[in-house]
Structure formats: C-alpha cells, structure tokens
Amino acid sequence: MQSGALKVKAAQFMQIYRSREVGQSYLTSVVTTLIALVHAMRLMLRIRPTSSLFFQILCNGPGTCVPLCLIAFFFKV
C-alpha cells in the first residue's frame, strides 16, 4: 500500500431521479426537475453530510447533475 493512500471502509450508492429524459419536452421537464430537486433534498437530509465525512457526488450528465449540485450548493457540501 502506498503511503498517504485512502482506506475506504464502506461506500454507499444511491439512485436518483433525472431532471429530464432524452427527448422529453421542455415544458414537462419543469415538473420532473422539481421532483428531482425534492428527491435530492430528501437524500441530503437523510445523509446529512458533514465536513469530517468524505462525501463525493458523481454525476453522469446534466439530467442528474443539476438537482444534486443545486442541493449540495445549498448545503455547502
């Protein structure tokens, strides 16, 4: 093992709602974005990340990234 390497004891993966599906109209995406924001808020309130906790958000596109990043910014994560 290299010196300074991080040991991870446990990882938790969660699936979230997308803001907008491919091909979805912009009008209906407003509703699904609000749903995704509420879902992301519920996850953040359940997890309650702190500065001492190693917390990382991995996103694979704007459909999942926008709600999580907005909520993470709100919580200053």
Automatic annotation (TrEMBL):
Protein keywords: Endoplasmic reticulum, Membrane, Transmembrane, Transmembrane helix
The organism's place on the tree of life at top rank: Eukaryota
Keyword Metal-binding: no
Subcellular location as annotated: Endoplasmic reticulum membrane
GO biological process: one example: dolichol-linked oligosaccharide biosynthetic process
Bilayer topology: Single-pass membrane protein
InterPro entries: Oligosacch_biosynth_Alg14
Keyword Transferase assigned: no
Pfam families for this protein: Alg14
Chain segments annotated as transmembrane: 23-41, 53-75
Gene3D superfamilies for this protein: Glycogen Phosphorylase B (3.40.50.2000)
Chief place where the protein resides: endoplasmic reticulum
Leader peptide range in chain numbering: none
Family: Belongs to the ALG14 family.
Name the UniProt record assigns to this protein: UDP-N-acetylglucosamine transferase subunit ALG14
Organism this protein belongs to: Kingdonia uniflora
